[in-house]
TrEMBL record:
It comes from Hydrogenophaga luteola. This is DUF2783 domain-containing protein. It comes from the Bacteria.
Amino acid sequence: MNDHNILQNALTIPGLEQVYDQLATAIDAVGPERTELFLVKLALMNANALADPAVFQSHIDAALKDI
């Protein structure tokens, strides 16, 4: 799958800002001792919603860049 297909349903900048704020609020709510568990659980739920392991892998690859 190419990047164009991955991004065709991309969020707008305001949408991304809203998601960022929601994620930050949730991370603060669970606390540092449960952040990793929360993020893994969230990632698996989103992978299930994507229903495409190849797209999920491309998201992992993109997230790993420049870390």
